[in-house]
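Key idea: predict the complex, not the pieces.
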Amino acid sequence: MQKPSIPKGTRDFGPAQVARRQHIFNIIRRTFESFGFAPLETPTLENLSVLTGKYGDEGDQLLFKVLNSGDFAKDVTGADLEIGSKALLPKVAEKGLRYDLTVPFARYVAMNRGTLTFPFKRYQMQPVWRADRPQRGRYREFYQCDADVVGTDSLLCEAEIVLMMAQVLNGLGLDDFTIKINHRGVLRNIYQALGGEGRESDLFVAIDKLDKIGRDGVTKELLERGFTEATVETLFELLSVAGNYEEKLERLMAGFVTAGVEPDGPRPTAEEPTEVPVAYRGLTELATVRDLLAASGFKQFDRLEFDPTLARGLSYYTGCIFEVKINNVLMGSVSGGGRYDNLTGSFGLPGVSGVGFSFGVDRLYDCLEALDLFTATAETPTRCLITHFDAASGRAALPLLAQLRAAGIPSELYPDVSKLQKQFKYADAKGIPLVIVLGPEELAAGLAKIKIMASGVERVLPLAEVVTALTAE
Amino acid sequence: MQKPSIPKGTRDFGPAQVARRQHIFNIIRRTFESFGFAPLETPTLENLSVLTGKYGDEGDQLLFKVLNSGDFAKDVTGADLEIGSKALLPKVAEKGLRYDLTVPFARYVAMNRGTLTFPFKRYQMQPVWRADRPQRGRYREFYQCDADVVGTDSLLCEAEIVLMMAQVLNGLGLDDFTIKINHRGVLRNIYQALGGEGRESDLFVAIDKLDKIGRDGVTKELLERGFTEATVETLFELLSVAGNYEEKLERLMAGFVTAGVEPDGPRPTAEEPTEVPVAYRGLTELATVRDLLAASGFKQFDRLEFDPTLARGLSYYTGCIFEVKINNVLMGSVSGGGRYDNLTGSFGLPGVSGVGFSFGVDRLYDCLEALDLFTATAETPTRCLITHFDAASGRAALPLLAQLRAAGIPSELYPDVSKLQKQFKYADAKGIPLVIVLGPEELAAGLAKIKIMASGVERVLPLAEVVTALTAE
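Result:
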């Protein structure tokens, strides 16, 4: 006999878990929609020609590939087999599973360029799949919730990302959060301050590992990559600049001026440029985002940190970058994003810039669970169970059952003739809050007994008044 | 440059389509929950050991299989290659995509037998994948919405399936529907009336094709399978029995009695058995379901048809079977289901009987579209766009924007400084119903101009009264 199982890194979600996950989705959806983002859904299966090469070599490895249907091996030759999987792959698989929501979004924008109204604001809440090694907070099937605006370079979009991040986390009751913000322009200026040119990505990749390998590890890596000890010293002075948001902006600017970094900003934007004596694009934009937040009534500046060490890896970001941590749980970032200048270039539509961010629902779920922030969730939506004594009283309950449902009270009649005790046990196990007892005596007298399970309180009411009484409950 | 595309049989859903699909999901979800069904979600990826052999040979062919990650070809030998795909498959793929919601449900029940409370009522609304040839109403990725009860043989469950089918279709405005009902016991009795034994499935499969190949085609097939002409004649007399629901029950009973079919019912149930002079299980149960519907206040008996030709193929049904057609659209069935006696047997948990049914959301969508039953849907959830003249008036609008959102009115500030005409065009293209104009004059006077896009009506209001006015809008 086969013992059933599910693939590692995947999960079943029972009734209580689905209800809790829906709670998270609803708060995110309401926030996205409140800011004018419209929903988009893309297929689970994408052509590998769309997915491959978009996520780096490691990403290509982690893509789930789907076997062609029918006689998939018909074009495979013995020579292919000798070379191995690499030669076989293009002959046996043309499709893969969605790996993130950004590439499908870019594909959608490129395919529908003629009919979309720009700026185009979309949100997308769908699962993605990665053949990663499963571990804490990392699954092979997990949900992302993305919101992106393309077709505008207004910094209002950056400010609204911070507002949305805070609104969702506050809505979930996750108060102890830090929204980290940085700007690729700041990292570029830092690189210039070190006297570097053209190898920014080496620096980004090394800084990105600061969390994991620490200052010593990063130093070692940078020395190996040909940076000098003096340079690395300057780097850490700049990265560890102290103070609040504004103070860090000022001190970094002073550092850039001292190092002779050529001013490169502000680029022209719709907003009033913040007045700064020397204009570096990254610093200016970060100042503007802060001003727009203040003008929008944002109050949680103690949870917004300008972190010059935030790099967000090798990704395609070109402007502001974001990352959110929940401080009182040991968990990777629960949200992140940034501005990009060329989302759809690889799909034949250059020059589409935009900014977006993503929530990891599964990590938010794990945080809420770790902090015990979920309210008790029943195993069923049923609010009322009608119990009965025999087939006749069961059948006599059918009109009441229909009335309860019509009044919007999810209800069940226990389907079998069973001992009352068993019926109550069913209500108890599922967390059904109200039980109606309809025995022959009650029916003969035109009455119903209602028991509130939590308190044990019982009331006897005329049958005709039950629906009204429970609607008020 | 790569021209992006999506795999055939898959679809992108833009904002208006997602909104329309959500409308369908919401009505189905509310109905399921109103009847006490609790949500379950299972992974997209299932082990092929769970999926294979559950859907017949054709189903095994139509399963999407997922390549093992890493060096998937490492165990493939030249000998495998000579045999072909059949030999390669088990070496390169261990997982597949969910093909329906029933097998994962059975797997879930078997895996969690120890912790579930029975009767267990679950609903599940998730996509499934089949490598079928795409055609009208048939996609490779499509949604099913299933509700099942396991652990009770009460016919109340069957009656409630009819109630739920009708409630969903009425809720969607699809009034011209027919819910067909039959019983595997009736088909078995018909088979016995023909003098047959032990080859019922031949008969079921042939009858199932009546819609497609007609009486002549079915006759030809049955003669080839060894049935006599007289038998086929009797068969069609029984299948084409005329009258309403009750009349058909009576006439079939008379036919079975005449043919000397041994009584086989009623099986013991919790309900009062309907009084019939000779008890055939199928007919008795169909009569009981009708009685329970009447007792529940069901009024649409003109849309419930007892159809003795309904067979629902080779599937595992053992009791009542259901199928729903929308009569005024050319479209396959939009819903179907039935009772089964041994859902989880292949997963080591025998004797779990239950009854369930499924809605095809994509077909419901196509029906609603064909009948023009969708109300106009905007391309955005945004209710209000704030337009502005320059960076200063845009920034001055931020407090109002925050107030509108806090009041539950999804709102946007046009992000760029643009001509007013362009901003209005944006509102128009997206179907945003309200536009606020905040120019320097309005701001100086503490006023805002509100334009209702549908009527063109404009009002000028003190800024402080805007949110209250729009909340009432």
